[in-house]
Amino acid sequence: xxxxxxxxxxxxxxxxxxxxxxxxxxxxxxxxxxxxxxxxxxxxxxxxxxxxxxxxxxxxxxxxxxxxxxxxxxxxxxxxxxxxxxxxxxxxxxxxxxxxxxxxxxxxxxxxxxxxxxxxxxxxxxxxxxxxxxxxxxxxxxxxxxxxxxxxxxxxxxxxxxxxxxxxxxxxxxxxxxxxxxxxxxxxxxxxxxxxxxxxxxxxxxxxxxxxxxxxxxxxxxxxxxxxxxxxxxxxxxxxxxxxxxxxxxxxxxxxxxxxxxxxxxxxxxxxxxxxxxxxxxxxxxxxxxxxxxxxxxxxxxxxxxxxxxxxxxxxxxxxxxxxxxxxxxxxxxxxxxxxxxxxxxxxxxxxxxxxxxxxxxxxxxxxxxxxxxxxxxxxxxxxxxxxxxxxxxxxxxxxxxxxxxxxxxxxxxxxxxxxxxxxxxxxxxxxxxxxxxxxxxxxxxxxxxxxxxxxxxxxxxxxxxxxxxxxxxxxxxxxxxxxxxxxxxxxxxxxxxxxxxxxxxxxxxxxxxxxxxxxxxxxxxxxxxxxxxxxxxxxxxxxxxxxxxxxxxxxxxxxxxxxxxxxxxxxxxxxxxxxxxxxxxxxxxxxxxxxxxxxxxxxxxxxxxxxxxxxxxx
Length: 619
Ligand code: C2E
Ligand code: CA
Ligand code: CA
Fold this sequence. Notes:
Blueprint: H1 2-35, H2 39-65, H3 70-99, H4 104-124, H5 129-150, H6 153-188, H7 198-210, E1 219-226, H8 229-236, H9 238-259, E2 262-267, E3 270-274, H10 281-300, E4 303-305, E5 308-310, E6 314-321, H11 328-344, E7 349-352, H12 355-374, E8 380-389, E9 394-405, E10 409-411, H13 413-423, H14 426-446, E11 453-457, H15 460-463, H16 468-479, H17 482-485, E12 488-493, H18 501-513, E13 517-523, H19 529-535, E14 540-543, H20 545-550, H21 555-570, E15 574-578, H22 583-591, E16 596-598, H23 608-617
Parallel strand pairs: 6-7, 9-11, 11-12, 12-13, 13-14, 14-15, 15-16
Antiparallel strand pairs: 1-3, 1-6, 2-3, 4-5, 8-9, 8-16, 9-10
One calcium ion (CA) binds next to loops.
């Protein structure tokens, strides 16, 4: 089917060219008739030409005005072939008519036009190999017969020339045809795996959408992305990466063939599958999941490439196609969203696109849009959650960002910080938070509100940005003296600790030279905490709220917190407990050697004025 895809469009464009060419040159015959006083046959012939031209024009319109599906296009092309053959053949009528007259000029005219039309047919019909040959032969044979019948030596030669010309034309048109097929193939196929490419896949879906027989039916679409393919590429080289992709493609298309599913490669390590149609949604969904599971299993079987034993898994997003009003890209997008969900749930899994997902994506998009203007519209504010020492004195605070938007209301940092990290907005936002916090620190210092530390949350994306050090130093200079600088603590979360530890450590050390301290936030919830602790030069450790919550519930929970405190003590780190909510938690933490406490038991995040008045109350 694919081989015809572009030819329809190609032929559709050619129709008008032929019609224009034929009507304008056909009019030449009217002129001939007028000169040689035989106007009636020419007028009749030209009228026939016009009538057939109209047929061609109709065909042109049918294609342009209707979004034909494959079957309809095939029918259309079939009719078009008849039209073209007849259209070219009517010149033979004129040829026969003129050579049967005795005027030699008319013979010249007939021969020249017949030759011309032959050349035109060889060019125009290039994409229709059979039709081109048939038309060419049917135009050339009368010419040859004519030359032979003339019975002169030169005319035999001309007949021979005609045969040679036909051969050359057929050869040339054949070459062009092969070239067309090849470029057509390249336009719709992926060079590496020979699977259909993105364009092919999109047209495939569009065709499904157009086909009226698919109304009320269901199809499924899978989007498959290999997990950690990049690391194979990076560590073993692109050749091995390519081989692996080819092998995955082969396995997928074999499996696809069994189930009559279409497999394509969208690019990189992303593949997709389109199923046939199902009568009910349930049936479609069941089949989708069954196929996806089988596919995942197949992909995960081991590979031997260049003596390397490789394993790879994939994340698969599934979307169902049944609302035929939607665009091909929308379905791919849905599968893409589901695929990303599968990735974020730990990869090596299958997720079916659903309304919840779609709502979340919409909400995130909305947040992203409004977040762009949040700073400019003064919607971002800072709150300060007090931190207490074991004597219950306020010794510092954690800066927590707040966002109020007119349309969205209050949006929590847990929701918008990750989005700002993904979009890069965190850089601008983080700068603002730093500057505001430093200003507050300066203001409090001037007003005699002295605290030991101000903790500011820093996203990893900010911390490893090449401008970060420069920005912090600039802001320190602008608002803080060296003494105040030493009171700044940057909190970073362990889960987001960068892959490039060395660069991170370098940045941290530069800032530590300026007196800034570092804290690991949410300690215990991330990965390989202990190995990071050894590598990263930090000063403080924050026990995550989830551990504090467990204190009331179980002995295990208490042992856990104790262990963390001991680790911190051994490494000579300050230890902060966050999310302290009960008297019991407070007592336990203080008795076991925790240095600083923070939580609703003491106070929520406060605005500046509230913080100041609390601080003045509880020294
Ligand atoms: P986090 O750094 O772990 O911040 C502590 C969160 O726990 C804060 O939520 C705080 O209001 C809340 N909390 C404090 N004490 C208690 C308690 O006793 N009980 C309960 N249930 N919750 C308590 P918040 O302000 O919604 O912040 C959520 C997260 O957003 C933060 O977690 C932090 O990861 C991020 N975040 C907040 N502000 C910033 C910021 O300025 N920059 C960056 N990069 N991230 C921020
Ligand atoms: Ca924090
Ligand atoms: Ca935390």
